[in-house]
Design brief:
two-stranded antiparallel sheet; 2 strands
Length: 119
């Protein structure tokens, strides 16, 4: 229904703002935004684990997968920063898990592979 669509749209918008702010805080953007390193690592690791779990979970709704993908995209800058400090294993895992949702199109453009959504 249109009422449900409005709620989903509002929730999606709010989550995008929240995750963008968390990503900026983790990346240290802006005055007074930098988290203490140990706390930043805890927040980053927890959120990344949850988003990757959503990508892998059988029965995840397409909307959950979309939220996870958008969130992981917003965490690109912190992911690179953490890779510099902690090695590239987690960044490589992130890229590998995200790559299964895209395919190379006939013209060489990346396109969403909807068949990769967990069932």
């Amino acid at each position: 229904s249109s009422k449900d669509d409005g709620v989903k749209e509002a929730a999606t918008s709010a989550l995008e703002v929240i995750f963008a702010e968390v990503a900026r805080s983790l990346a240290g953007a802006g005055p007074g935004r930098k988290l203490e390193p140990k706390r930043a690592t805890e927040v980053y690791t927890s959120l990344m684990r949850r988003m990757l779990d959503m990508l892998e979970a059988l029965g995840s709704q397409p909307s959950q997968v979309a939220v996870a993908i958008k969130t992981l995209g917003k965490f690109a800058e912190p992911a690179v920063a953490f890779a510099k400090d902690n090695g590239t294993d987690q960044l490589n895992t992130l890229i590998r898990k995200m790559a299964r949702f895209v395919k190379l199109g006939a013209l060489g453009h990346l396109t969403l592979d909807s068949s990769a959504t967990p069932q």
